[in-house]
Specification:
Nucleotidyltransferase, domain 5; 8 strands; transmembrane transporter activity; 6-stranded mixed β-sheet; cell membrane; two-stranded antiparallel sheet; 30% helix; alpha/beta; 170 residues
Length: 170
């Protein structure tokens, strides 16, 4: 007769202490790095090269042209709205924001603006102009909020300035 041999089965104890130590260190490090990895994306409209329809040509287009020595705010119907010269070698973004607020109060439904930098425009100047025309800080019910100006930004090339003229072509 055969004997049935039973094997002794014992469960292995898992030592999870090293894993717990790893989690204690890893979780705070990952949480701290999430703050630094924040990236914002801005949707831009680039010219397509297609001709404008008659309806689009008649629509009001607000333009901000960035030259080396000034900012020019204009539209395609009335021409130059405001010529903003540099102050102490820097662009006057405060005055630009005031001009954009005034335009927004006249055409509250308008959401798009065309920014036209010259070839000499620095990246930081372009980003600052984009931030200035997109929104501004307003106080509502005792708290500071971002109020919308012209969030839909299109880019184009600045026209070459003619001798002494601040004309902007549409």
């Amino acid at each position: 007769m055969r004997r049935k041999h039973r094997r002794l089965q014992s469960e292995a104890d898992l030592d999870i202490t090293p894993f717990m130590n790893l989690m204690i260190v890893l979780v705070p490090v990952l949480l701290l790095n999430m703050v630094f990895a924040h990236t914002s994306v801005l949707e831009l409209n680039f010219p397509t090269g297609e001709s404008l329809s008659a309806e689009q040509a008649e629509e009001l287009q607000i333009q901000v042209v960035i030259y080396e020595d000034r900012l020019v705010v204009a539209d395609n119907q009335g021409g130059v709205i405001k010529n903003i010269p540099q102050r102490e070698g820097e662009y006057d973004f405060v005055l630009l924001k005031d001009v954009m607020k005034e335009i927004k109060s006249r055409v509250p439904d308008k959401k798009d603006v065309i920014i036209m930098p010259s070839r000499q425009t620095s990246y930081q100047s372009l980003v600052s102009v984009m931030d200035t025309v997109r929104s501004y800080e307003a106080v509502v019910a005792g708290s500071v909020v971002e109020a919308e100006l012209f969030p839909e930004i299109s880019l184009g090339d600045a026209p070459v300035p003619t001798s002494g003229s601040a004309e902007v072509s549409s």
